[in-house]
Amino acid sequence: MSKVPLRVTVEKVFEKLPGVQAGNSRTSKQRCLLRLLATAHQQQLSPAILTKNLAEEYPGSYGHKLQQLHRWLKADGSMSAAVRHTPGILSESDTLAVLCGIETQNIEPTFKILTDSNRDDAGNGAQAPVTSKVGYFVFLSCTISIALAFSMSLVLPMIAYMFEEFGLEMGFGLESLHAYHVLVGIALLFFILATIAVALLQIPDIKRFMTQSFLADWLPSIRSNRQAGIARIVSVPLSQNQPLRPTLLAAAQFHVSAKWRKKLLHVATQLEDNADFWSLANQQGILQPSISKQMRSMQTAQTQSWTLQTLANQREIETDRSAIGFINGVFNLPTIILGFVAGWLILGVMSSLTNLIISLN
């Protein structure tokens, strides 16, 4: 009996993965890897070989992470250790869910929930070309800032000297700019530094480091996504009619935030029955109060599990859309401010030069 070449098997697996070429965003690549790992587990294939082939599809920083994941899978063979030692290879909530699923031996239903097609379609539809906007924002901001800095440091003093030599008064716009040119220069320097910070935050590893800092707990979008992630993790044992304590203990072990680890551990130690979870989760803030209230009114665990998955998906979509809207507003506001300053400078210079020409005549 002839054996089927491994490369042919890998190609068949990739054919069954929708969205492999769906997009070049980090989220699309992470969802693709998640489906690949789920398919490898379901068909009992080597995830190390599949991740190596997937790395060839994605050159760049994420491809480098896939190569690192491949090395860990090849050396250790444990998916849990490989995912833990390759931070950023999956999203924060998906990483926690996979680790909890492996720890509680619920990895198959976990993969089934995480690779839900409705979640993927909705998530991809909510995305926007933020990366291209960041590049446009950085280029425009740096160009205008350099032009304004040159005008404030060289052109404006020269015009002021000319008016002083002729004994003329500058217009109000140019005079106010000349009077506060030091403050305007400091503001421009601060703006350039802020622009560089925005650009650096688009680097995945730096962005992940910031989301794992203590400041991240104060950001509503991150807190909302973490609550959605906990809701999705809890839905796994509920779908299997299992107790929640082992899953909560695993989440308390693997969560990236020390504050959330304490909250999850407190809930796990105080939990005596699954019915007590909703009030404890509400007290600790690991679930939204509205979700906890809805869950207490439901009778069956299967209904609670399906509702948690649906609400978690909707919450992630709403949070992503709100974050994209906020980013668009942040990108437009500096452009408007810089345009106002540039227009002020141009009008001041033109009106003053007009007055100079009229006085010479």
Please characterize this protein's 3D structure:
The chain is mainly alpha-helical. The chain folds into two domains: 20-116, Receptor-associated Protein (Up-down Bundle); 126-360, no CATH class. Helix content is 78%, strand content 0%. The chain has 18 helices and no strands. Helix 6 packs parallel to helix 13 (220-239), helix 9 (130-166) crosses helix 10 (172-179) and helix 10 crosses helix 18. The protein is elongated. The chain starts with 5 loop residues before the first helix and ends with a helix. Residues 1-10 and 16-22 have low confidence and may be disordered.
Structural class assignment = mainly alpha
Number of helices: 18
Radius of gyration, CA atoms, in whole angstroms: 28 Å
Distance between the termini: 102 Å
One letter per element, helices H and strands E, the order comes to HHHHHHHHHHHHHHHHHH
Helix content: over 70%
Strand content: under 5%
Mass-distribution shape: elongated
Query: Care to count the β-strands?
Result: 0
Mean pLDDT: 78
Number of domains: 2
How many strands, which pairing sense, and closed or not: the largest β-sheet? none
Low-confidence stretches: 1-10, 16-22
Transmembrane segments: 134-159, 179-201
Keywords: Membrane, Transmembrane, Transmembrane helix
Organism: Stieleria bergensis
Protein name: Type II secretion system protein GspF domain-containing protein
